[in-house]
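We emphasize that the prediction below concerns an isolated chain of 530 residues; any contacts that depend on oligomerization or on bound cofactors are therefore not represented. The input was used exactly as deposited, without trimming of termini.
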Amino acid sequence: MTISRRSFFKAGIATGAAFSMPSVLRAQTTATDARIVRMVKGGVPSVFDPVVTTSQGTTDHAAAIYDTLFSLDSKFVPQPQMVGKWGVSDDRKTYTFELREGLDWHDGNPVTAADCVASIRRWSQIRPEGQFIMTRVQDISKKDDKTFTIALKDPLGLLPTFLAHPLYVMREKDANKPATEAVTTNIGSGPFKFNEALAKPGASYTYDRNEKYMPRKEPSDGLAGGKIVKVDRVIWENIGDAQTAVAALQAGEIDYYEGPPADLFPAIETDPNLELQVLYKYGLDYFLRINCLQKPFDNMKARQAVLHLVDQDSFLQVISSNQRYTNTVTSFFGSGNQISNDENIGWFKKGGDPERARQLFNEAGYAGEKVVILQPTDWTEVSNTSQLLANALHKIGVNAELAPSDWGGLVARRSNKGLIEDGGWSIFITGDSDFNRGQPLTANHLVMNGEKGWYGWPQSEEYEALRAKLADVETVDERKALARKMQAIAWDYVPEVLLGQFTAPIARRKNLTGLIGMPDIVPMWNMQKA
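Result of the prediction step, given as a token string:
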């Protein structure tokens, strides 16, 4: 999932406040830093395996050190990346992939087809598109050191698209680990090497240009084409305080800050050396995820109660005080996607409907069970929206309790399917790109396959049957018709509740250019520093 950290401040912070904040990085910065980029992208990752977690920090880390078989271009069309040549049999059931030349692991060994086969099998245990592929797979096998095949029982034209969403290829010995056991070696074949010697867990991580990496010859286009590294090193810093981060940006001690709070936009906009930039125009859709396994939310009416309770405008005011960057969202599939629609959205009401929410909790037989809301204290707008949600639940008589931790602690706890008293949970808030909300075949949280699925574990066989049909329909109208039926089910079942959309700009120094604007991933390649 997309995770960017933005601090929330009360209105009235002086525009120049950031100028007075103390320097935290000045001693580390020298005049020879033209080939070094320092980035603050939220809390540094605590888990490095992109199969084990969908956390944004982990995804950005993986995009730097690993490579992918296919990648999406700026029009979201899959293009070969590690694959040099590929083809499909006349019956459309057997795909053959040949790796391009010059692919080597950071430890010096060549990338092989066996690495790819093992990576696909491990990835497919967790990712929804991988799980779907495996329902049609007859065999995935190595043909020779550079070639592997995927043989299907039935045709699947979306196979290259699924492999581009994305599948990070690991060494065979790493990919042979269970999908529930995190890989910790950080050895990939991508354009950057992870510098273990300079790693400061919880504080900063360093990525060095992989001098032996051979990019594709095509121009960079979205996440596809040549991954050309134009700097020698990227340092990912963890600065939790927004004012300190903006002060460091103004002083030239960092070059990029992901997610400045709206209260500090004026300080950035009036600085001649800084610029706000929206990398993805549809932004992030915030939502609260509900645990469907435990009381009270094992009852559908209790989940519907939260849907009616939420006032998106109130939550958006907490997420950003600058409403120019916010919008309400009513479609289960986001606001800017081909399959976004208005089916079964009668629950949406300005101001929410607390009385209807109270009534639905009563109909669900709510008996005062504790509702635990996981609160990430280092993702400030989500921390504050968690408090707003707890307050709204208190007002209608729900026994809501916050469970504060950093994001890493939340990521660890949300996998617990147990009772509240055994460390379980009821609700957590996160966000995903609006683009991803329109991809029900590949977005983890748009799947309803029960305990095999994403945190919250909703289960609807009717929804899943419709979702499976999406892989085979050929026209846009057919996709839209299926999406309307799926949305009707989703807003009755309520696996999650939308809180609104925030098109968050990043802040950067003007001499840092070449940033790639794509949803879900902020690549470290292509950028350069004047």
